[in-house]
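Note to self: user wants both folds in one dump. Writing first protein now.
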Amino acid sequence: MDSIEHTPSKEQMPQWAETGPLSTVGAILTGKSQIKYLSSHMETREVQFREYPGNVHSYELIVPHLTKAGEKWITEIGVWFPAAHVPEFNERVDRKPEMQIDILTGQGHMALTKNPETMRNIYEEIRRQTDQKEADTSS
């Protein structure tokens, strides 16, 4: 009997042990993340075989670690917007690309989600957290 491991009670288990850890997107959308503005820069991206200039706003992202209960994972996300004016662009024929949100992973930058509604909700949470911090510091 001494070699049997003790099974923790429900109260002793990490919050995510019953359902599994939240995904990074889930952590952002449920408010279980911390987002802080870092910087902005210009960047040209290829979208549908055409290059578009745009602005990238970088943010520090802190979310619960996916595999280590009680620990945090710190990474960076970038929100890219196409420039307001794109040279040699015919708006009647061409369609300007949408906003993109990338996350820095061990394999480099990759799209956080391709779902437009999820992307808008993530951007709203980014704005909510960063706008709130700006309001707190200006008071």
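First done. Writing the second protein, which came from a different request thread.
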Amino acid sequence: MGSDLRGELALLQRLQAVAQTPGLSLSLCHDFADCDLLVVRDDASLRSAAQRIVANHPWLPMWSLHADGRLSDALAEPQAPLDDHHIRTVLQRLHVIARSHAPSSANAAESTVHEPLGLALRKRLASADTVAALTLDGRDLLLLDFRRLLAITPPGATGPDDTPAQVLGREFARLSLRTLPPARYSTLFVDLPSLPMIPLLWQAALRMAVVPELLPPLHEGCQLKLARWPDFRVLAHRHDDFRLCSLLLRRACTVLEASHALGVDPGAVRAFFNAAWLSGYAQVEAESAVAPPPPPTRQRGPGALLASMWRGVRRARGGSA
């Protein structure tokens, strides 16, 4: 209360790091009826207003945030600084209370998705009406607005040398997706710099593994087909990806079929399949239990060339005899 959005997000990341509690995920809340903890900028007028709020919500802890970053118990006299141990204890206690009151309904306002992450992202792209957070070890790594196809990275969520696409690609297998109440995070996409979501998902998919594997539920028997040309921003200058786009716009292919048709490494084709499918440009046209073997290739090595020459010589001799 009383801080700007950047300050709130920085504090949120700090508290998440101090909590060190698996499964505990902190988020901003602007409805006092839903808040578990009130943090107020250390200002006399703000503190007075906050105390009136707490008077109507006596169970609500209230901390003061000082200009130097210190936190103290605003309801204690005198105010004593809170160390990490005390902060962690309070957050863990609030986490236990919140879990005991958590709704069991599948339609809860905020829930953790347990289906394959790629499939969950695809469904939300299709629904185009949700806001979600990609979380890593209980902290928000990326916020996604599927209505406007925008993504933001909370301050401090990535290292100074990492791009969101690099982090998302590197940590994809460890991420989970939480659906969030749209009203809670809608202002973040106005006040913080945002990224276009589709190019981000595409580039992240290309960075998921040194040896790419298809994202579940895709498998080697799936024939993928592009529905339309991707935005040229997502293709960058990868020549083989342009060739794959041209092929898959004409007909559906498995990884091995596309690899053989274009002479592209199967691993590169798998990475392209992941990117095109995850970002919504491609769809599965048909699938079988296993991919059919590619058509046999003609040998073009030195031995094959020598054999061809020898057959030509024999035919010439036979013709002159």
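Dump finished. Worth passing along: Residues 101-113, 296-310 have pLDDT under 50 and may be disordered.
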